Amino acid sequence: MKLIYNVSDRPAPHKVIVFALQQLLAILAATIAVPTAIGHGMSQSAALFGAGVGTIVYLLFTKFRSPVFLGSSFAFLGSMAAAFAGAATLALGYLGLIIGAVFAGLVYVVIALLVKKFGSGWVGKLMPAVVIGPTVAIIGLSLAKNAVGDLFRGSVLVNNTPVANEYVALICGLVTLFVTVLCSVYGKRISKTLQMIPFIVGIVAGYLVATIFTVIGNVASIDALKLINFGMFSSMQWYPDFTFVEAFKAFGNLSEVGIGSYIGTIAVAYVPVALVVFAEHIADHKNISSIIEKDLLEDPGLDRTLLGDGVGSMVGAFFGGCPNTTYGESVGCVAISGNASVVTILTTAIMAIVASFFAPFVTFLATIPSCVMGGVCVTLYGFIAVSGLKMIQTVDLGDNRNLFVVSVILIAGVGGMALNFGKVTITSVACALILGIITNVLVNLGKHDDAEAPAVSEETAETEAPAEDNAEADITK
Predict the structure, then answer these.
(1) Which of 49, 93, 257, 264 is most buried by its number of CB atoms within 10 A?
(2) What digits encode the pLDDT tens for the residues 164-188?
(3) Residues 132, 387: contact at Cβ < 8 Å?
(4) SS3 state of residue 324
(5) At 139, which helix (H) or strand (E)?
(6) CA dist 178 to 192, 212, 331, 454, Å?
(7) Per residue in 362-414, pLDDT tens?
(8) Is 162 exposed, middle or buried (0-12, 13-18, 19+ CB in 10 A)?
(9) Is 63 left (phi over 0), alpha (psi -120 to 50) or beta?
(10) 301 with 51: CB under 8 angstroms?
């Protein structure tokens, strides 16, 4: 994909701010959705702060060579719920979140040390383009249902059900979608910068339309038109509730609970999920590598990206409670905007930290209706899927070996093949990747032998006489 700003490029300061805001909008919905889904008083602002700090840690470990943003991981939702479910007190539950993130981060650290010692060549052999390509596509396709579902939802809820008419929401979502597309495709005719901020323009357009509907709905008392919950501004929280603050309250009661068994429960809930997310870590970095046309698993190296992700998750959870992970939304934003500048990612991380203390800004972001974010996510998730499919352009799908591998991954992923083992969930993306790796190994068991001993047709055997026979024929003549 054509990049306007490469990894090491530095856009002008005023442009960096705008580009960073766009990145923040791209990752915002998912980042604050995790603490909302868990409940127990977890703070959205703290999750935003944790994502910013975690990303800075990641950038430091990767020597500012990898334009990746870390945000709250959905894969650990079950693990986080288990931390609260097994806790005798709420404070102990918060401590469990930090302990669990440490376990998850240590998995990455151990794998990173192994990669440092034995190299990362095995990754290319185990997960070649024929495996990684469709897996990246599945990351985008698996999110398609979320994007389409959001298109029909507003932010005003009663009993967790939107009150706005779904077609009114769809209008706002489509306005956002089409303005984003038109801005990206034709924005250069007006301004090169405009072409690079299609998400901001699209979200503003969608928000304005949603505001008009909401104002009319409030004036005329028509609930079907109420898309934006402006009431959130009346209950703003002016500072983040950091996880470690609540967790420290648990230390005085540790003697009264079975802390040993509780830690064991946390380990079982977090470690297997970390191994699964490791596969998605590979896929995301292969994806961004294809966009910037530089293999990040070689430079700065898989060991550094793993350390950055692992330690970044630990630090992020210390503040926000949510283990972090690389974000496909951020990768999609890089692809669509053509801006892979790591300075933009760093500025986004700083902006997330600052914004977490500015309640009106965080609240404004939270009021953006689901339908508006759905319009943006249609393009974001679509670009992730397309970038994965581009990886298999050079793969020979006329070869049944490759055809079977791609087919298995796509069907398992699109079909939503997920496995649950108690409190551990193996996501559809992970299942598809694992199944694809196994299939690839099976269909290529005899490939090396075939290459060494190519088949010779009978016709060729007859026309090409052995040298000894030719010599004997010469003597006879």
Answers:
(1) 93
(2) 899 999 999 999 999 999 998 898 8
(3) no
(4) strand
(5) helix 129-141
(6) 19, 18, 21, 54
(7) 788 778 898 998 898 898 888 888 878 888 888 888 899 999 999 999 999 89
(8) buried
(9) left
(10) no
